[in-house]
Amino acid sequence: MIPIAKPFLTEEEAQAAYDTILTGWITQGPRVQEFEEKFAAYTGAKYAVAVSNCTTALHLSMIVAGIGPGDEVICPSMSYIATANSIKYVGATPVFAEVQPETYNLDIADVEKRITKRTKAILLVHQIGMPADIDAFQELCDRYGLRLIEDAACAAGSAYKGKKIGSHSDIVCFSFHPRKVISTGDGGMITTNSQDHFERLKLLRQHGMSVNDRVRHESVKMIFEDHIEIGYNYRMTDIQAAVGIKQLEKLDWIVEERRKVAAAYIAAFQDIDCVRLPLEKNGYFSNYQSFSIYLKQNCLVERNTLMQELLQRGVATRRGIMTSHRETAYKNLMPNIELPISQDLQDRSIILPLFVPMTSEEVETVSNHFAQTVTAASICS
Ligand SMILES: *Cc1c(COP(=O)(O)O)cnc(C)c1O
């Protein structure tokens, strides 16, 4: 069976975790600080704050952006559900906008139509690693006095207009879940160029504590901490950070390897006219966190039938990215939402295996089975 994904972890990551455990300092400490400094340097952002996962990163981002009850935040419904949930956590309302069929990213014209007096921010997702048009959304936010928050959960190592994701705007959130391109088990990071955000995020992730454990530990003078606001325990551990430092060293290589697989798929499916392949426009650089293919109307094999057939041939696949408004939690809260483009994309997309290392035999096996199954049943060359 060829799996849909697997994390690229080696002896080096295992050794780093082992060594960290034996130092006796296992929660947020020196390794977390080192990982933050290296991640900031990698992305080109001034600061980075490590947290327990991307969902908590998004929650803290809502708080530092000043989002609260009564506010609206525009985001895609077609995203992992944590995107919308993070808006609910602060008592605000997610307002779902449509995405572009070619990129799965927010459709700016549709977003603009949904701006009201209550809108405070746009939560911009770089879906499955393909950067959204950050400059255009920043311009829209500036024009309406809105905050821009980037959900870059899937986009570590992706780039937009020659600069890595993480350096463009004031709040960018990353995930290190095993389904993303680099992993620390669970884990998240927020990059920012704002010193105010940096200081507040550090407070909020650790109970609002004025002095962190490491500073207190290293101090030669007595220090007593104060808890200056109600915070959270959203810390990353030093064990995770030690793994993250090793993963970060490999990130550019992992992205290059992923792009080779994506290029091989694109070459193999180029001439099949009943599928739409990912579109990477000039100035956009995807890490291909996932490789999603859309089955056009002239594709006669049903998506789920195709998935079952591929499974029987030893190829694991996943259906298209979920639409949050069709999950029970949101259906109950906000019934009657219709987002035809997002719904169609979810229903007619299929995600193929993509991981590192993937042998050329594996890539060929997936390509052949996919091409055969799709073309056999379709009016499609
Ligand atoms: C994975 C993902 C998240 C959640 O990340 P966690 O680290 O698992 O909390 C949020 N947004 C998007 C777009 C994601 O893909």
The CATH homologous superfamily of the largest domain corresponds to Type I PLP-dependent aspartate aminotransferase-like (Major domain)
Low-confidence stretches: none
Average pLDDT score: 96
Give the CA-CA distance, first to last residue.
27 Å
CATH topology of the largest domain: Aspartate Aminotransferase, domain 2
If helices are DSSP runs of H or I spanning 4 or more residues, what is the number of helices?
13
How much helix is in the residues? 40-55%
Number of strands: 14
Distinct small molecules:
pyridoxal-5'-phosphate
Query: Based on helices, strands and strand pairing, what is the structural class?
Result: alpha/beta
Give the biggest sheet: 7 strands, mixed
Lateral arrangement of strands in the main beta sheet: 1-9-8-5-4-2-3
CATH architecture grouping of the largest domain: 3-Layer(aba) Sandwich
The percent range for strand residues is 5-15%
- CATH C-level category of the largest domain: Alpha Beta
Order of helices and strands, N to C? HHEHEHEHEHEEEEEHHHEEEHEHHEH
Descriptive notes:
The protein has two domains: about 10-250, Aspartate Aminotransferase, domain 2; about 250-380, Aspartate Aminotransferase, domain 1. It is built from 13 helices and 14 strands. Helix 2 (about 30-45) runs parallel beside helix 9 (about 240-270) and helix 9 crosses helix 13. The mean pLDDT is about 95. It is an alpha/beta fold. Bound molecules: pyridoxal-5'-phosphate. Pyridoxal-5'-phosphate binds next to helix 3 and helix 4. Pyridoxal-5'-phosphate (PLP) binds near residues 54, 79, 83, 151 and 175.
